[in-house]
Amino acid sequence: MKPTMIRTAAAAAAVGLLLSGCGSSDEAEAAADVTTAAAAKLDTGEFPTTPQPEFGKATPDTAVGIESQRMAEFIVFPWDVDPALVDLFRSSRPMKGPSDLRGPFGETAEDALKDSFVAGFATGAGTGEEDGRGLGIQVVRLDDAAAADAAIPVIHESWLATEYNPATPDSVDALPNSAVVSSEDEGEVNVRSVTAHDDYVIYVWASSPDGDRQWVDQSISNAVEQQEKLIDQFPATPVEEI
Q: Which CATH architecture has domain 61-241?
């Protein structure tokens, strides 16, 4: 081997030993820096450190609200139907119990459906303008599909029997299996529809101050179509566990 090659190999070996020595020293120093905190000496000030009592289990009354809240992710909101409907109504919320049936369906329907009520969620929004367009969507879960089917004529009759907000039987072409009523007041048209879908009752209403019935019917049918598909994805808690 030539002298030049011997010197080069020796230099490389020396550098390798030097780097190896440095690495070992660094690792030893890093290991020495590791310490264990003494939990008893930590000063938490006034912050409580004792465990809180267990939350416990939901009562039947609170379980309804929890299940209703779970439905929110599977509810169609008005802006999903018409992007102009962005002014959310205060009535948008989970249903807490059967008493929440009276507002949309009337006292007669509330009395008839309260024993089969499981959960529900309501939402509504308008254009934000005075006397602007509005759309509301409410999904009510009942005990089973038979209860949902039986609820439709009850709700329909309850709407027609309401004296303070008289309505007439109507229809929406795209929803032949839905019960529909309508009313008009000084050019404003209001249409309400209710549809049974498995264990659910889907209630949709729409109003137009300028009497645009085409927009009303399209909005209602679009909302029902979207809502049927979306609620099918809801992982509902079995009734006996609520």
A: 3-Layer(aba) Sandwich (3.40)
